[in-house]
Amino acid sequence: MNDPAQYAMMDRYNGVFNALEISAEAFRAAYDTPDIGPHIEKDYKGLSYLSWPFAYRYLKEHFPTIFVAFEERSLGWPVFGEPGAYILRPYLTDGCRRTPALVFPLMDRKHGSLKELDGRSISDNIQRASVKCIATFTGLGLRLYAGEDIPKEDDQKGSAKLPLQQETPKQAARTSKAPAPAKEAADTAGTEAPAPAIEAKPFDAKSLLTELCTANPLGYESAQGSLAAGKAALETLGFVRATEVKDERTFGNVVSAMVTIWAKEQGLKITKTDMSKELDIIKAAGPSADGLAMAIKDFVAKKQ
Known about the structure:
Blueprint lengths: L3 H10 L4 E2 L4 H8 L8 E3 L5 E3 L1 H11 L4 E4 L16 E2 L1 E4 L3 E2 L5 E2 L13 H20 L3 H5 L38 H4 L16 H11 L7 H14 L11 H18 L6 H13 L4 H15 L1
Parallel strand pairs: 1-7
Antiparallel strand pairs: 2-3, 4-6, 5-8
Helix pairs in contact: 3-4, 7-8, 7-11, 8-9, 9-10, 10-11
């Protein structure tokens, strides 16, 4: 057995490692950290999770000698298991001592078991596993996993959300109140019958997104590039196809994702606050594809 990873695994199985300890005081301080509200993000299902840059920053500020590492199946390869049951095994270490390893399943964007491996999915899951490892052993953000409320500092006044974190409005609760009984013909003589209710047309996000991408307001080399950007925006929000987008607000988030992806590709220097304002202006031009395309073109022109 010449593989160093196999030697390390055998040491772990035999309990041959020095335990890394985090004091109860440090754990409690991290667990009760009051200012993490702005760093909590939500996925397309509304599930909360801690921003990985914030988790790493906290780790280096409060535990500067500790870092996240992964057990390896073979040298340089951190993935264990088989299709549908791939796992990562993250742990904290200072290079000499270490914690036990967690078992973290590799998941797709919809939290389903990953069936096929690729570099992007492995990288994304490594980031998620790292955050959970930091939370488990330091206490930072562990309240999210426990389902507890995050403590607030001075009743934080509505911390601003990132452009892609807007919540879809909840439908109004249905009432059980029965409709009023019809009046007698004598009472309604001379009055017009109420117009029949008109059913609202379902929101056609597919046609709208196709029309917007075909207009290519972000100036890709071809319409195909623009369509690819639209698909990437959907995937960023956890959607497989545009038909899964059911309302104007969610479609606005898709448009925001398109513009945000473009801005990152261009290396655009803009603050989060300014970007949020620009995205609000763009979304206000909707829901027509023409209005959105014009607003996006105006944004691109200002930034070039």
